[in-house]
Design goal:
261 residues; mainly alpha; 10 helices; two-stranded antiparallel sheet; 61% helix; 2 strands; 3 domains
Length: 261
């Protein structure tokens, strides 16, 4: 008679569990807690010292750049800390002090005196401080009229077009670079002209060199950024119409045939 083995009793019987048993860690002594607090405080103190040095160096560099380019330090600090984001959320609100400084500059020029913005601040800031709220509001109104009167229409000359593109490209690069650092993104763009009225090379931008190198893998073809840019430019000048890119009659007929299928 065959032997029958039952696993029910074995499965249902009490099992002896082996292995590591979790134990609550032993409480730290007062001396250990004090050492941890001291280490944390020392680390925080070092961080604050480095941040303070960072801020001092940044402000010093902003002041140096302001002197070099005859601008306000705040302009460079805004670019550094905001990463160009102020260009996206720009609000055309007139600052009373900016209005005062602008009008004062015009007043001095009419007297034959040319004075930089830092010098105007040094010599006339006390005068601004004595103005009432109504007088400051009046400055803003007068400055708005000056800006409207001196507004110049954009001239669509070839040189103006190239400069316009260069300004936009610079802002786009600044915004994408800052966004990459703040959020963590990768991006690329290519700007080409779609007419022959002005001369401009294709403008490429990649947030990282690795992204450009990956294009050959993504397209599964040999990727030469400069050549791709020239092809995109030719395509844009052709009106973004694939049919106009073919030079042979047979190729055009083939394209039209497949378009109607």
């Amino acid at each position: 008679m065959p032997t029958v083995y039952s696993t029910i009793s074995l499965a249902s019987s009490t099992r002896i569990r082996t292995g590591n048993h979790s134990h609550n860690p032993a409480p730290r002594t007062a001396e250990q807690l004090k050492e941890k607090r001291d280490a944390r405080a020392e680390k925080q103190s070092r961080i604050e010292a480095y941040v303070q040095k960072w801020m001092e160096d940044t402000n010093q560099l902003a002041q140096t750049m302001a002197t070099e380019f005859d601008m306000e330090p705040r302009y460079f600090l805004d670019i550094f800390f905001q990463g160009g984001a102020h260009m996206v959320n720009h609000q055309d609100v007139i600052n009373p002090y900016n209005a005062f400084r602008g009008l004062k500059s015009i007043e001095l020029r009419e007297q034959g005196i040319v004075m930089s913005a830092p010098d105007i601040h040094t010599n006339f800031f006390d005068e601004y401080e004595k103005l009432t709220k109504d007088e400051k509001n009046d400055l803003c109104t007068r400055w708005e009229k000056v800006r409207s009167t001196n507004f110049q229409l954009h001239r669509d000359t070839p040189r103006a077009k190239v400069q316009d593109v260069a300004n936009v490209v610079r802002n786009m690069k600044m915004l994408l670079s800052a966004l990459s650092q703040r959020v963590g993104i990768e991006a690329l763009f290519c700007i080409v002209k779609n007419n022959v009225e002005f001369k401009m090379e294709p403008e490429w931008y990649f947030t990282s060199r690795e992204l450009e190198q990956y294009m050959e893998i993504a397209t599964r073809k040999k990727w030469v950024t400069g050549e791709v840019g020239l092809k995109l430019e030719a395509f844009a000048i052709a009106g973004c119409d694939p049919a106009s890119m073919f030079t042979t009659f047979l190729a055009s007929v083939t394209l039209l045939t497949f378009s109607f299928l």
